[in-house]
Write a structure and sequence with these properties.
Layout: H1 2-20, E1 51-56, H2 61-74, E2 77-81, H3 91-97, E3 106-109, H4 112-118, E4 124-127, E5 133-134, E6 144-148, H5 157-162, E7 167-169, H6 181-195
Helix pairs in contact: 2-3, 2-6
């Protein structure tokens, strides 16, 4: 009975979020949470973030947990494209995010098409080892979406074809494959914030 009441409360909360979704500003995700997604975001309380971090099918829970902490302390929103390589309530995710996890502006999507549908007009930039433009030479508008691929496979070819002029690269020695995902997110995110004058940060 307790579990039924809990599920009913979650369902009611999701229904309330549907009513509030109309207040979402341009460039914000309009995702409405359901009982399969955790945590349940308070859409009415969230303003438009200065930047958005998008993880395409992340595989390692600790990386996502570390990135969630980075997003909270910078005011960025985190968007996760399913399928994920872990349960979002995984202890490793929440441990890495510490007590910041509950303060995270988090959105989840069932696939890339769902993400695009809920974020019309999104300014998308791909962080990839296949990019030719250093991340410092890109100009990031407020509300830009910084997209990062899987730890093992990167981003799918269809995304490379869809955004050929929006692919940025973090310079590194040629004999190595890539940085750790959470490190790569921090590098690019802080450059974008620097360009914006570190809005609302001390």
């Amino acid at each position: 009975m307790a579990e039924q009441n809990k599920q009913a409360a979650y369902t009611a909360g999701a229904a309330g979020a549907v009513d509030m979704a109309g207040v979402a500003g341009a460039g914000r995700a309009g995702s409405v949470p359901d009982i399969r997604h955790w945590p349940h975001p308070n859409l009415a309380a969230w303003g438009r973030p200065p930047l958005n971090v998008v993880l395409y099918q992340p595989e390692i829970p600790a990386n996502t947990g570390n990135i969630s902490r980075t997003c909270v302390v910078t005011g960025a929103a985190l968007h996760l494209i399913e399928p994920l390589g872990f349960d979002i309530s995984n202890r490793a995710v929440r441990r890495a995010g510490l007590d910041y996890w509950q303060k995270l502006q988090l959105y989840t999507y069932r696939d890339w098409a769902d993400f695009l549908a809920r974020n019309p007009g999104a300014e998308i930039f791909l962080a990839t080892t296949k990019g030719s433009v250093p991340y410092t030479e890109i100009r990031y508008p407020r509300g830009a979406f910084l997209v990062f691929g899987q730890e093992t496979a990167g981003l799918p070819e269809e995304l490379h074809q869809a955004y050929p002029g929006r692919r940025l690269r973090i310079p590194m020695r040629s004999e190595y494959r890539s940085l750790n995902l959470s490190n790569a997110v921090a590098v690019v995110l802080f450059e974008a914030l620097r360009q914006q004058g570190f809005p609302d940060l001390l």
